[in-house]
Amino acid sequence: MGWPRRGVYFFFETGEARTDSGTGLRVVRVGTHALKEGSQTSLWTRLSQHRGRTSGGGNHRGSIFRLLIGGALLARDGQVSESWGRQNAAPRDIRDLETDHERAVSSVIGEMPFLHLDIDDEPGPLSLRGDIERNSIALLSNYRKEAIDPASGQWLGQHSDRIRVRESGLWNSNHVDEAYDPAFLDRMESLVGAMVRS
User: Fold this and answer.
1) Range 124-149 average pLDDT
2) How would residue 23 be classed by pLDDT, with cut points 50, 70 and 90?
3) Is the pLDDT of residue 63 over 80?
4) Given this model, what pLDDT does residue 22 score?
């Protein structure tokens, strides 16, 4: 399908508008994959893990994004799940009980438009993908600072049990409390330019 082997992705959410420019949707999730040396996960595989299977199901134990969305859905709807997010793996009978909720999570994520940035570097601690992900989250996060493009009052993330999600306005927990390096924007601009020219 022409997908790059590796990259960074940016999810948006309907109803979550940018406020500083007055146009467009705000980013609600930034992520990448295969940062550990030797990892072979592709961008397409990671996005598929987040969005779920074509049957509508999915596995929140393999995607923190799905875990966060599912937890917020449960809280919003006043529901309780004894198994959601409780184990790294679960037997078939437990997963079967979670099927309807996994479908609900897939429906929410499936409605989110997203963009990707092609960065085909090798996994490791000096990965450019890791740099772009980390700095993008830090830049976009509203965690414990004056909000830029704040989450709306109706944003599903307002129901998250994680303060970093609620206060950052992102479906991210890592890097939301960090400062960003403005020089990363030059690196990102070069990457976007390379994709536009190709």
Assistant:
1) 95
2) confident
3) yes
4) 66
If you ran DSSP here, which 8-state letter would residue 18 be given?
A: -
Relative to beta strand 7-17, strand 114-118 is: antiparallel
> Where exactly are the structural domains of the chain?
7-197
- Are the C-beta atoms of residues 27 and 10 closer than 8 Å to each other? yes
Q: At a CB cut-off of 8 Å and minimum separation 6, what does 156 contact? A: 13, 69, 72, 73, 76, 108
Contact 79, 169 (CB under 8 A): no
User: Between the CA of residue 159 and those of 18, 21, 24, 72, 166, what are the distances in Å?
Assistant: 20, 26, 24, 5, 7
At 21 the pLDDT is 64
Nearest to 53 by CA among 116, 109, 117: 109
pLDDT at 58 over 90: yes
pLDDT band at 56 (very low <50, low <70, confident <90, very high): confident
How far apart are the C-alpha atoms of 58 and 76, rounded to whole Å? 20
User: How many angstroms separate the CA atoms of 198 and 196, rounded?
Assistant: 6
- Count of Cβ atoms closer than 10 Å to residue 198 Cβ: 6
Q: Which two tokens stand for residue 12?
A: 């948006």
